[in-house]
Specification:
Layout: E1 4-6, H1 13-16, H2 30-45, E2 52-55, H3 59-71, E3 79-81, H4 98-105, H5 107-115, H6 152-172, E4 177-180, H7 183-194, E5 212-215, E6 238-239, H8 243-254
Parallel strand pairs: 1-4, 2-3, 2-4
Antiparallel strand pairs: 1-5, 5-6
Length: 261
C-alpha cells in the first residue's frame, strides 16, 4: 500500500540575503510565498490528497504549509507543529552572511561546517540572542537540551525518533502525510528513508519550494519512482515540476557559501 510524503520548503528573507538561518525565525520573501503556492498547485495538479500535515514551529515553514495547502484546495487539513522538524541550529554562524564567512574562514572550512555529516559550526553561548532558550515557543522544553549548535548528525538524532514515534505510526494507520520542513531536517528524513550513507548525504541538496514525493510500502520502505518521473538520485523520491529547473535550484543551494555567491 502506498504512502505519500511530500516535503516542500520556500525561500526565506535570510535565504535571499545568503545568511545562516537555522532556528532564527524569519519570514518568507515574496518569491518564497510564490514558491509555496506553486508547490501547492503542483500537488493539486498531480492529484495528491493528504490526511494530515506536519511542519516545524518556525514561521517560514508554517506559512509555506498554509499557502501550499490553500493552493492544493486542502487548507482544511489538520496541521501538527513540532520543534523536532526545525532546521538544524547553526550555532555561532546564525545570522552571518555565508559568502563573507567563507572569505573570513575559507571556503573549505565553511563547507565542512555546512555540509559535513558530524562536524557542527562553532557553538554560541546562552547569552546570545539566537539561543532558543530566549524564545517562549520552547519554554516547555528542558533548557539544558536546547542546542547551542547542531551538525546534520545531531539533527538526525531528533528528526529520526520523531519519524519513528509520530510519522511512521500515522502512515501505518493509512494516513497520507504532507511534511513541510527545512533543508537539513528534510535531509535527515530522506537519509533515514533511503538509507543514505553519512558520506553521500553531504552531496544531497534540496531546492526550495519544490514538492518531493515518496511512495512507501507497508514496511515504510521507499518504492521506485513511477514510470514517467525522474528519481532525485540518490533519493528514491521524485520532484514535481521541471527537472532541469529543479537541478539548477539545487545547484544554487550548494553554492551558497561560495565567496563568489
Amino acid at each position: 500500500m502506498g504512502r505519500y510524503c511530500e516535503p516542500p520548503r520556500s525561500q526565506s528573507e535570510w535565504n535571499l540575503q545568503n545568511r545562516f538561518t537555522g532556528w532564527v525565525d524569519v519570514k518568507l520573501t515574496d518569491q518564497g510565498r510564490a514558491e509555496a503556492s506553486a508547490g501547492g498547485a503542483s500537488i493539486k495538479d498531480a492529484g495528491f490528497e493528504f490526511d494530515v500535515a506536519y511542519t516545524s514551529v518556525l514561521t517560514r515553514a508554517i506559512t509555506t504549509c498554509n499557502l501550499a495547502l490553500e493552493s492544493a484546495d486542502q487548507a482544511w487539513l489538520p496541521i501538527t507543529k513540532d520543534w523536532r522538524l526545525n532546521e538544524r541550529h547553526y550555532g555561532g554562524l546564525s545570522g552571518l552572511n555565508k559568502a563573507e564567512t567563507s572569505a573570513k574562514h575559507g571556503e573549505d572550512q565553511v563547507k565542512i561546517w555546512r555540509r559535513s555529516f558530524d562536524v557542527p559550526p562553532p557553538a554560541l553561548d546562552r547569552e546570545s540572542e539566537h539561543w532558543p532558550g530566549h524564545d517562549r515557543r520552547y519554554s516547555a522544553l528542558d533548557r539544558a537540551a536546547l542546542p547551542l549548535t547542531e551538525s546534520l548528525a545531531t539533527t538526525c538524532e531528533r528528526v529520526v525518533p520523531y519519524f519513528e514515534s509520530e510519522l511512521a505510526p500515522a502512515m501505518r494507520s493509512g494516513r497520507r502525510l504532507l511534511i513541510v520542513a527545512h533543508g537539513n531536517s528534510l535531509r535527515a528524513l530522506v537519509k533515514h528513508l533511503d538509507g543514505i550513507s553519512d558520506a553521500d548525504i553531504t552531496g544531497v541538496n534540496i531546492p526550495t519550494g519544490v514538492p518531493l514525493v515518496y511512495t512507501l510500502d507497508d514496511d515504510l520502505r521507499p518504492l521506485p519512482a513511477p514510470a514517467g518521473s525522474t528519481a532525485a538520485s540518490p533519493l528514491s523520491g521524485y520532484y514535481l515540476g521541471d527537472q532541469d529547473a529543479i537541478a539548477e535550484e539545487a545547484a544554487k543551494v550548494a553554492a551558497q557559501a561560495s565567496v563568489r555567491a
